[in-house]
Amino acid sequence: MLVPILRLAASPMPLPTPRATRLPRRTTPQRPRPALALALLLGGALAWPAALRGQAAAAARPERPAVHRIRYTGNAHVDEDLFDQSLATQATRCRSIFYAPICAVSNSPTFEERHYLDREELARDALRIRVLYWRLGYRHTTVRTEVTPAGDGADVTFHIDEGPPTILRAVRVTQTDSVLSRKDIRRARLPRRGRPADLFRLDTARLALRDRLWDRGYGDAVVTDTVVLRDSLNAALRVTLRPGKRTTVDTVEVHGNREVTARTVRRLVDLKPGQPYRRMDVLDAQRRLYESGLFRQAVLTVPETADSAKRIVVTVREAPLTNVRVGVGINTTEFGQVQATLTRFNWIGTARRVDLQATIANLLAPQLFDQGIFTSAVPRGVTGDVRSAYLQPTWQLSLQVSQPWLWSTRNALAASVFTQRRSIPGIVIDRGYGGQGTFTRRLARRTAASLTYRYEQTRVEAGELYFCVNFGICRLPQINALRGAHRLSPLWLSLTADCADDPLEPASGFTAHLDLEHAASYTASDFRYNRAAGEYARYVRVGRGVLAAHVRGGIIRALASTAGAVGADTGTAIIHPRKQFYAGGSRSVRGYAENQLGPRVLTVDPDQLITPEDTLNGLSPCTPASVADGTCNPNVAPSTQFLPRPLGGLQLLEASVEYRVPLSPTLLGAVFVDAGTVADPHLHLASPNRVSAITPGFGVRYRSPIGPVRIDLGVRPLLVEDLTVFTQAPDSTGALRIVQLDTPKRFDPLEGHAGLGRLLARLQLHLAIGEAF
Question: Measured in whole angstroms, how far is the alpha carbon of residue 580 from the centre of its chain?
Fold first, then answer.
C-alpha cells in the first residue's frame, strides 16, 4: 500500500529579507580580536587566578565535567562539520588561534571558551542526529553515546549506525500549465531516481522551482511535493507545479522617507504599474536602494491579496546624507598611508552623489627605507644610491559626481577631476592631473559595460637608466623631452560581469573583466597605443573547500606617431610605464616580489667591478678604461652586488589555481600554483625578452570583519639568467654617463646561500587583505 509520509506546499512568494551589507560567512559568534604579543603574555599572567578559580569550580561540579573532545564513528555519509553546527554538546576550545600558546597553560575564560557536559542535552543530541539522518534519507539510523573521563573533564563519542537508506524508485514532476522547460526543472536539482530520499535537497529544489516560476511572472505560484513510501527502503517522489495567473505591479507606495523624495525612491525602485511582478526585479530594486547609500534599511512588502495585480509597499529608513571616513595603513611598497573620504549623498536631489577623496602615501619613507622588510620599495640609482624624489610623499586627490540613473536605472553617469603623484613600485613615479567621464550601461543582472574618456597631463619621474633601457634613449636632451609634461588621454570600453556568490570570500560563480583601450591624436593624447587586457576567475565547491582558478592576460602596441608627439627621435616603441604589463606580487605570481617577474636588467656600482671584495671564475678585476668602453666582464663580481630592475612587457599571460579549505571557524588554509609569462618582443638586449615561471606555494587566511587577512608563501624557481648589465663612467668632460657592458652577467639570486638558507631564500612572503582573486 502507498502511504504518503510528507506533504509540503510553497505559499505565495514572500519578498526577500532585506540586508544592507553582505558580511563574511561565520559559523560561530564573533570572537575577540587578538592582542599584541606583550599584551597576551601579560594577560596570560593575569589570567592564572581566574584559571585556578575555573579549575576549582570544575572540581566542585563533577556531575558536569568540561567536554574536552567530541568524536563521531560510523558517519560515512555526513561530514562532522554538519554535526558541530547542529548539536548542543560542544567541545571546549580556544577563542582564537592566536591565543593557542596561552590556552595550553591556562583555562581562563578570557582566552578559552568552556563547554560542560549536559547529559539531558546529550540524549537530545542523539535524537538530533537521528532526525538529521532521517531528513537525509536514512530512516533506520541508530545512535549510541559514550562519555569517557579525560583528565579534569570528559570526552564524548557518538557511535552511529547509519543503516540502509530509503531509495527513490520514481521521481515525477507535473505542471498544471507548461511554464518551465525540462532544462529549468533539471537545473533545480531535485533528488534523482536511485538516490536517497534527501529532504534537504528536496526543500532546496522546491524553492528553486518556485523562484523560477516567480521570475517568469507567476508570483502566486505554488509548488507541492509528496514522498510516498512503498516499503521501509523504497519510496516515490511526486512534485506538482501550479503557476496560477500571471502577476503584475499595480502601485508602489513609499513610507519612512524624510529628506529623500518619494519620486526619487520610485525611480530607484523602477517598478512600473502594469509590468510583470517578478522576483529578479524585486531583488534588483532592493539592491539599488542599498547601493544608493541613502538608506540604512529598505524593505519591500506585498500585502496579501487574491488579486494578481500587486501593491508594493516600500518602507525605508534613511542614512545620514554626509559620510566621512578616515583610514591609515602601512605596507612594504608605499610605507605609511593615510586616506580620507567625504561623501555627500542626494546632492541637489535625485540621488546624486559627490565623493571627495584624498590619499597620501610614502609617509615615513626616509626613516623606514632599507630597514627590515622595507628593502625593495624604492628604485635605486646605478650605483645603488636612492634618489630623494622616490622617498617623497605620493598623493591622489579626486572629486567625483555620480548620477545613478540617466533616462533609465540601467544607465549611470560619472564625472571627476583629479591630481596625483603615483608610483609603480620599483619602476617609476609619474605625476599627473586631469579629468574623466564614464557612462555605464547595465546589460544584464550583475553585468555592465562602461565607456570612459580620460584626459590627463602626465610627467614621468625616473632616472636616466630607466629611459635608456626602456626607451633606448640614452642622450640627455631626449631624456629631458620625455621627462616633460605630456598628454595621456585614452578612450576605453570596459565589460564587467560579477556572478560570484560573495564579494569577500567567493565559493561559487565567476567574475570576468575586459578592457579595450585606444589613444591617438584625435583623443588628444601624446602617448598613442592600442591596449587590451582581461581576466576571468571561477569558483567551485570541492569537498570541504573551494577550488578557485584565475586567468589574466593583456597585450599593448604603441603607435609610431608617439615618438614625434613626445619629442623623442627614436625607433623604439614608446609606451607610458603605467600602461605596460608587470607580473609578480601578492595578487599575481606569488613566487616573486612586486613586479619582479619579466624582462630585467642589472645595475652595479662600477667600484664593485674595479675593486671587488672577491673575484670569481678566475677573472681579473676590471679597469676604469674597460668599464668606460663596456668591455668589462661583470662576472668578476658576485651576484649579491647587482640590483635587478624590472622593465615591464608588452604581453602578459598569467594563470593560477588555488584550493582553499577551512581549518577552523575563523582560519582557512590554501595551497596554490601560479604561472606567468611577460614578454617584450622589441627588447634588443642580452637579457631574455620573454620570462616565464611556475611557482607553487601555500598560505593561511584569517576571517576578519574587513575581509580575509592573507599570508602567502610563494616558492621561487631555481632560475639562473644571463642579464644585461648597466653601470656608469665619466665621459671626456667628467660628467657621468650610462654604460652598457658587452658581456651579460650570469645572475643567480641564490648565490651565497647554502643548505637551509638556500631553501629559505627561495620563499617570497606576501601579506595582504582580501583573496588574491
Answer: 23
Grid coordinates representing 89 are: 554538546
Identify residue 115 by its one-letter amino acid code.
Answer: H
Taking the CB of residue 755, how many other CB atoms lie within 10 A of it? 7
CA–CA dist 721, 277 (Å, integer): 64
Mean pLDDT of 66-73: 91
Q: Give CA–CA dist 773/769, Å, rounded.
A: 11
Whole-angstrom Cα distance, residue 739 to residue 507? Answer: 53
What is the Cα–Cα distance from 163 to 636, expressed in whole angstroms?
Answer: 75
Give the Cα separation of 18 and 256 in Å (integer).
15
Q: What would the grid cell of residue 345 be?
A: 549623498
Which set of grid coordinates corresponds to residue 17?
A: 529579507
Report the C-alpha gap between 708 and 62 in whole angstroms: 41
C-alpha cell belonging to residue 93:
576550545
* Three-state secondary-structure class, residue 681: coil
Q: Which residues are CB-contacts of 188 (< 8 A; sequence separation ≥ 6)? A: 205, 208, 209, 212
Establish how many alpha carbons lie within 13 A of residue 493's alpha carbon, considering only the half-sphere containing its beta carbon.
4
Tell the burial category of 133 from Cβ atoms under 10 Å away from its Cβ (0-12, 13-18, 19+).
buried
- 57: CB partners within 8 A, 6+ apart: none
Q: How confident is the model at residue 333 (pLDDT cuts 50, 70, 90)?
A: low
Percent of the chain with pLDDT over 90: 36
CA-based torsion, 40, 46, 50, 51: positive or negative: positive
Closest CA to 342 of 362, 321, 312: 321
Note whether 519 and 491 are within 8 A (CB): yes
Q: What nine digits make up the cell of 112? A: 578559552
Secondary structure element (H or E) that encloses residue 476, with its range: helix 476-483
Residue 392 CB burial class (10 angstroms; 0-12, 13-18, ≥19): middle
- Residue 127's Cβ-count burial label (10 Å; 0-12, 13-18, 19+) is exposed
* Amino acid at the residue 448: A
Write out the three cell numbers for 503.
564579494
What is the tens place of the pLDDT at every residue in 447-469? Answer: 999 999 999 998 877 666 666 66
pLDDT at position 564:
78
Q: Quick one: DSSP state of residue 595?
A: T
The larger pLDDT score, comparing residue 382 to residue 102, is at 102
What CA–CA distance (Å, rounded) separates 604 from 608? 7
The closest alpha carbon to 763, from 716, 711, 719, belongs to 716
Rounded CA-CA distance 403/413 in Å is: 5
Task: Tell me how many degrees the CA angle 251-256-261 measures, rounded to the nearest 5.
Answer: 70
Distance of CA 294 to the CA centre of its chain: 26
pTM higher than 0.90 for the full model? no
Helix (H) or strand (E) holding 498: strand 491-498
Instruction: Enter the C-alpha cell of residue 78.
Output: 555526513
CA atoms within 13 A on the CB side of 255: 8
Say if strands 234-242 and 167-175 run parallel, antiparallel, or are unpaired: parallel
Distance from C-alpha of 169 to C-alpha of 171, rounded to nearest angstrom = 7
The one-letter amino acid code at 226 reads T
Write out the three cell numbers for 264.
526619487
pLDDT tens digit string along 712-732?
999 988 778 888 888 888 877
Q: What is the Cα gyration radius of the chain?
A: 33
636 closest CA partner among 662, 661, 613, 663: 613
**pLDDT at site 198:** 92
Q: Which three cell numbers stand for residue 12?
A: 505565495
Q: Cell numbers at residue 691, please? A: 620570462
| Cα 424 from Cα 711, distance rounded (Å) | 22
255 pLDDT tier (thresholds 50, 70, 90)? very high
For 168, the 3-state DSSP assignment is strand
pLDDT for the residue numbered 44: 42
> Residue 324 above 60 pLDDT?
yes
